[in-house]
Amino acid sequence: MNLKIAVLAGDGIGPEISVQGVNVMKAVCEKFAHQVSFEDAICGAAAIDAVGDPFPQSTFECCQRADAVLFSAVGDPKYDNDPKAKVRPEQGLLAMRKKLGLFANIRPVETFKCLIHKSPLRAEIVENADFICIRELTGGMYFGEKYQDNDKAYDTNFYTRHEIERILKLAFEYAMKRRRHLTVVDKANVLASSRLWRQIAQEMAPLYPEVNTDFMYVDNAAMRMIQEPAFFDVMVTENTFGDILTDEGSVISGSMGLLASASTGESTPVFEPIHGSWPQAKGKNIANPLAQILSVAMLFDYFDLKEEAALVRRAVNASLDACVRTPEIQVEGGAHYGTREVGEWIVRYIRQA
Ligand code: IPM
Ligand code: MN
Fold first, then answer.
1. Domain 1-102+266-353 matches domain 107-256 at the CATH topology level
2. Interatomic CA distance for residues 20 and 27, integer angstroms
């Protein structure tokens, strides 16, 4: 297979983990005789500094030319505490989502046996947690009409039937491939937009008779996720609820540095870790590269390269088992490995496999 990858390393620890993802991808492609090429492009604070735009046209075009985007992280503290800043790194992320039509954000919540003790929840609650949150990514309050003056402000939670149908279709299809349980999360007891979501989901459910579809209010879902995460298989929800619930989901497994995500839609798909740019760790060679490396596994999955994806996951699990881990997940008395060393170990494992 021929793969052209746009590499958007972004800010903070982004560039360090990006390199490890790229190296892993190169090693796997070499092994399976795929042709892969990479093209770097700027985004986030780095792009604001360089050209005044967090997602410049040249980066957009680079993404359009590519088969997939390997994204790392954006964000810089110098913009966080300035409510008057005209441009922010995060706007680059939103622009990328909108321009590439990335309406579906797929965030798996999976646990790694050897890290369960890191979860803030009791082991017996977390043990069997294995679900996917599918978040609608280009609609709702993020992109609806907004207004702000000194005395009032509003954001509009706008959704069309088309937007709801396409994300629900994807969610039903994911459920079919998994344990056939879909939970539609909404706030239909209060919000009109949620009532339309629920109505459309009820219309579509008979098309997937094998799927056990249920509905849950978002407040209740937030509670259920920590009480009984194993209840969930596939969860689908609108943009804002999904933003909140996926952060909650990421801590369940106790290892945010290990979770990857995929955003797919109308054009080039994007694969990225769910964590942020961790500016304090920039250049220190301490950031965990595993989420970025696992996003490469999701990339291979997307192109139906199952063996390639499985090899990446095997290599990651082997590194954990061998205690080749970055400081935040290292066992007591374990040797010190940095971002680079973990990445290099995994590349070696792949070459020798
Ligand atoms: C995420 C992030 C973004 C979001 C921010 C950085 C704009 O929190 O990807 O979940 O709110 O979608
Ligand atoms: Mn978020």
1. yes
2. 11
Alpha carbons 94 and 20: distance in angstroms, whole number: 25
Nearest CA owner, ligand 1 atom 2: 243
Closest among 18, 88, 92 to 60, alpha carbons compared? 92
Q: Domain residues of the chain, as ranges? A: 1-102+266-353, 107-256
Q: Are 291 and 330 in contact (CB under 8 A)?
A: no
Given the residues 247, 284, 306, 321, select the one marked as catalytic: 247
Convert the pLDDT of each residue in 36-84 to its tens digit: 999 999 999 999 999 999 999 999 999 999 999 999 999 999 888 777 7
Token reading at 253: 């497994």
- Give the C-alpha separation, 343 to 347, whole Å: 6
- Domain at 107-256, CATH homologous superfamily: Isopropylmalate Dehydrogenase (3.40.718.10)
Q: Is 90 in the pocket of ligand 1 (CB under 6 A)?
A: yes
Per-residue model confidence (pLDDT) at position 121: 95
pLDDT of 84 reads: 78
Could you confirm whether 304 is annotated as catalytic?
no
Superfamily of domain 1-102+266-353: Isopropylmalate Dehydrogenase (3.40.718.10)
Question: Which of 8, 43, 90 to probe ligand 1 with, by most ligand atoms within 8 A of CB?
Answer: 90
93 lines ligand 1 (CB under 6 A): yes
Which of 219, 262, 263 minimizes the C-alpha distance to 241?
A: 219
Q: Backbone phi, then psi, for 36, in 5-degree steps?
A: -130, 140
Q: Which residue's CA lies nearest to atom 8 of ligand 1?
A: 243
CA of 192 to the centre of ligand 2 (A): 23
